[in-house]
Amino acid sequence: MRVTLALPRELSQSEVSRWRALQEADTAFDNPFLSPEFTLTVGELREHVRVAVLHDGPDIVGFFPFERHPLGIGKPVAAGLTDAQGLVYAKGLDLDPLRLIKQCGLAVYEFDHLVSGQPLLNERHERHPSPVIDLRDGWERYTQTLRANSGKTYKSTLAKSRKLDRDAGPVRHDYATTELEPLRTLLGWKTDQYRRTGRTDRFAHQWIVELVERLLATQSESFAGVLDMVYAGDRPVAGHFGLRTRTTLVGWFPAYDPQFAKYSPGLIHHLAMAERAAESGIQLIDMGRGPKEYKDKLKTGELQVAEGRVARASPAAGVHWMIRVPVRKTRATVMANPVLLKTADKALKTYGRLRTVLQG
Q: Are strands 301-311 and 126-134 parallel, antiparallel or unpaired?
């Protein structure tokens, strides 16, 4: 196997087409974060994005998008934002992970959402569930599953939607809009949510705002940004921005107006989104790794993603281990313990309230 490195913008049209063909040939890669369009768009905004093109003789047999940081530290493209990471490659590829990262000029490659079946995986890497909504049998079949598994939630959400309609005006759903104004409303809600809950505001980084706007403007059969909003009367209540392939929609940035919290606008929106997505040909909604009550209520199953690293013996890899691995293990311990997780979440929300008061 021979590896060549390129900036995303240096890829030829035939290479991009080959990437897309490899992705569509294997359902394991059916996630827009693994699409060439995502890496190409991030590469316009992030100078350290690279693509390793894998050759077997005259044939291109794989693509490995990554970010190369100082000291040879490798990360996924748009690390910290993506829910699917890894290579896109031909079936039967025989690959040595350590040789690959060496050829990429990396001492270590760290990941937290590596998709199943990757040649980078080994038994030491931690696996985590990524809840999904399976829509392959259509919307009606999904609602039957909801009634059987989360009947109380399904009925109460429909009741709250009717109450919202009576109290605030006719409820309507605008699916797959490309207008910037509702996107900015959604991002404003998300920023407020980050601050209220003590999290870092991702949209304080201008490149992330610009990335989302560029992805919204990217519309093709095989890849698109998908923005949808629920309104009560003329007032936006809840919404979501995600990405899709032909058949998979990924959950990315959901949010709602907290003034409507008593109506469970997030659940109202997710049901509306799933119905319209099914109508448009989406077969799977990947809600992403992470414990959330609404995911447990809406999911029909789970995929798996992995967290860990591949590292060559080097001083840089040793320094990276000392800085990152203990932190990751502590976080995993907290996430796996409901009492610790609840305590940590409460502490973050308290911090968020104090920060809001001080900044206000």
A: antiparallel
**30 and 153 together in one domain:** no
H helix intervals, the chain: 13-24, 36-43, 97-103, 139-168, 180-196, 206-216, 265-279, 293-298, 315-336, 338-359
Number of domains comprising the chain: 2
Within 10 angstroms of residue 284's Cβ, the number of other Cβ atoms is 21
Task: Indicate whether 164 and 274 sit together in one domain.
Answer: yes
Q: Residue 281 CA to chain centroid, in angstroms?
A: 20
Specify whether 282 is located in the same domain as 325: no
* Domain harbouring 253, CATH code: 3.40.630.30
Residues 170-194 have pLDDT tens digits of: 999 999 999 999 999 999 999 999 9
Do 97 and 109 lie in one domain? The reply is yes
Instruction: Tell me how many degrees the CA angle 317-41-286 measures, rounded to the nearest 5.
Output: 80
Cβ distance 187 to 209 under 8 Å? yes
CATH number of the CATH domain containing 11: 3.40.630
Same domain for 166 and 308, yes or no, is no
**74-99: per-residue pLDDT in tens?**
999 999 999 999 999 999 999 999 99
Tell me the torsion sign for CA atoms 339, 343, 344, 349.
positive
Q: Which domain holds residue 243?
A: 131-303
Return the number of other C-beta atoms located less than 10 Å from residue 144's C-beta: 12
Q: Are residues 150 and 276 in the same domain?
A: yes
Using CA atoms, how far residue 328 sits from 30, 73, 132, 310, 318, in Å, is 27, 16, 24, 15, 15
Q: Indicate whether 317 and 341 sit together in one domain.
A: yes
How many angstroms separate the CA atoms of 333 and 336, rounded?
Answer: 5
Q: Report residue 348 as tokens.
A: 């973050």
Q: How far apart are CA 18 and CA 27, in angstroms?
A: 16
Distance CA 360, CA 357 (A): 5
Closest to 112 in 3D by CA, of 80, 144, 151, 72:
80
pLDDT by residue (tens digit) across 339-350? 444 554 454 455
Whether residue 192 is found in the same domain as residue 97: no
